[in-house]
Amino acid sequence: MKVILLGPPGAGKGTIAKALTEYDGSVQISTGDILRAAIAAGTELGKQAEAAMKAGNLVTDDLIMGIMEERLREDDCQQGYLLDGFPRTIPQAEALRTLLSRLGESLDAVLELDIPRDVIIDRLTTRRTCTNCGEIYNIKYKRPKVDGICDVCGGTEIVQRDDETEEAIENRLEVYNEQTAPLVDFYRDEGLLVSVPTSEREPVMQALLARIGG
Ligand code: AMP
């Protein structure tokens, strides 16, 4: 399947994307993960993205489109992809439309996760991430089996992301409302929008599969 996951930070896009990859082998493509890996590796891309990311602002559309032009041409995308955190602006959505038409591809659906603001703030301020493998934990709802040690890779640094302080989260939500929320109407007009008022796995999967005929 070729699906965009749309929703504010903390809506559950990554979790739902991971569940969907198990369903049909589509790959999850998270621009946030790609950027964080570039920062950790100290690449030129990472250097260009770092300051904006730390503050909870968006990196430039050009930088993101450069990443996606390359990523969507890779072989593992043949089976389908779940775009997690991309597009995030109308210019990115327009550039994606052009890119897909060049590649002879089209989207099956845009899944909007619609979550109340207080749930997001609670979820993000309590979220912790393994710096080694990216596995996500939560100090209230999902602790690792052994405190301080990642269940998946055994890593011992499970930390709060720089952009998950309360101040950065407030900014990210504002950025979402201003720059990303207009995509809901954009994709509704294209007839692709599936809107689900939850981040629970099962209802979201059912709504999506009903739409794309899975
Ligand atoms: P995420 O992990 O999706 O919450 O993204 C973390 C941060 O990476 C965002 O706050 C932005 O700074 C940057 N980022 C990720 N994806 C994009 C995108 N499509 N456009 C611009 N900035 C992005």
List the secondary-structure elements in sequence, H or E.
EHEHHHEHEHEEEHHEH
- Give the CATH topology: Rossmann fold
Number of helices: 9
- Quaternary assembly: single chain
Strand fraction band? Answer: 5-15%
Radius of gyration: 17 Å
Shape assignment: globular
Q: Name the bound molecules.
A: adenosine monophosphate
Descriptive overview:
The protein contains 9 helices and 8 strands. The relative contact order is 0.19. It has helices at 13-24, 31-41, 44-55, 61-71, 90-103, 117-125, 166-180, 182-189, 201-212; strands at 2-6, 27-30, 81-84, 109-113, 127-130, 136-138, 158-159, 193-196. 49% of the residues lie in helices and 14% in strands. The chain has 214 residues and is an alpha/beta fold. The strands form 2 sheets. It has a 5-stranded parallel sheet, with helices on both faces. Strands 6-5-7 form a 3-stranded antiparallel sheet. A hairpin with a 5-residue loop joins strand 5 (127-130) and strand 6 (136-138). The protein has one domain: Rossmann fold (3-Layer(aba) Sandwich). The protein starts with a strand and ends with a helix. The site of adenosine monophosphate has 18 residues, from helix 2 and helix 3.
What does this entry show, briefly?
With 214 residues, the protein is an alpha/beta fold. The protein contains 9 helices and 8 strands.
What characteristics describe this protein?
5-stranded parallel sheet; alpha/beta; single chain; 214 residues; 3-stranded antiparallel sheet; binds adenosine monophosphate
